[in-house]
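User: I'm preparing a small set of examples for a lab meeting where we compare how different chains pack in three dimensions. I only have the primary sequence for this one, and I'd like the structure in token form so I can line it up with the others. Please keep the answer compact; I'll paste it straight into my notes.
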Amino acid sequence: MYKLLRNILFRFDTEVVHHFSMTCLSLACKSPLLKKLIKSQFSYKHPSLEKEIFGLKFSNPVGLGAGFDKNALYLNELEALGFGFVEIGTVTPLPQAGNDQPRLFRLPKDKALINRMGFNNQGVDVIAERLAAWKNRLPSTDDRQPSINGKRLTVNRLIIGGNIGKNKVTPNEDAWKDYEICFNTLFDVVDYFVVNVSSPNTPGLRELQEKDALGKILTKLQDINQKKESPKPLLLKIAPDLTNEQLDEIVSLSLEVKLDGLVATNTTISRENLKTTSVEVASIGMGGLSGKPLQKRSTEVVAYLAKQLKGQIPIIASGGIFIGADAIEKLDTGATLIQVWTGFVYEGPGIAKSICKDILKN
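Assistant: Understood. Below is the structure token output for the 362-residue chain.
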């Protein structure tokens, strides 16, 4: 059914279709009866799928990566589709429009996307207010939940991650200020944080992956975090284009500042081994490539990190996950949780349920 619908949707602009599809789902979920029907169709619960990671209890290990719901507009809908967690953002201190459209492109022959969105979002204040409203509509159960090492467990609800970045106009030497603003503003309304210094679509951002610049950002955030009564898990999202030497530096820094996890990986700037013609790829221009072409490299990065970390820090795997076998490969390689994005576009709303069922069978 979805393949037929996908063939129709793929005839239209990618970003327009994204907003149209989610608006339709949002309208359906406004009806409690329809939401219950959608949830029964697309959610899949089983005790064996639950995972306790960095003090949070995930109903299942399948999450939706940052960039899909930048402004926390669709949490109600994504919960109905059975995701165990959703990462909102990337969020910046000030609202920004992002890069000029078109900026999101499909490569159907490769089951891939190229995006150069440019951290388009409504700004941290608006998003924090929206997340507070979402949190307040849920039963307030946190205070009655058990804890692990002083961290309260969050049970039976959608886990929300806050992916944070810097504004395009902020110079790199002041980037830490943007991350600090986002961290402080979102602290009470997200369950964990992901520091994004690896998107290829903000000029100069990837330079912040260098050890000194990254160390400054992470150290400042951890200083703030550890002074809180209940610190939030702090993770780092990395690019797939790093060398092993650069990955070693990431591992060393992660242990030094006591990060709670790594997300591997963001999109790639590589255009190797694509089935789409070089002429068509060139006509699209710059941007991060995601989807099936990223699968092998992201798995290699997860495997390398897992080997170096020896289980000291959990890894969330992202990149080229479409079906259960893809997710199982990442989990077997050393990941603890997985995230989809491009796979959701190509496989449809049943992706979380399908992957969960395959993981349970494995």
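A couple of notes for your slides: The chain has a mean pLDDT of 94. The chain has one domain: 2-101+119-267+295-361.

User: Perfect, thanks.
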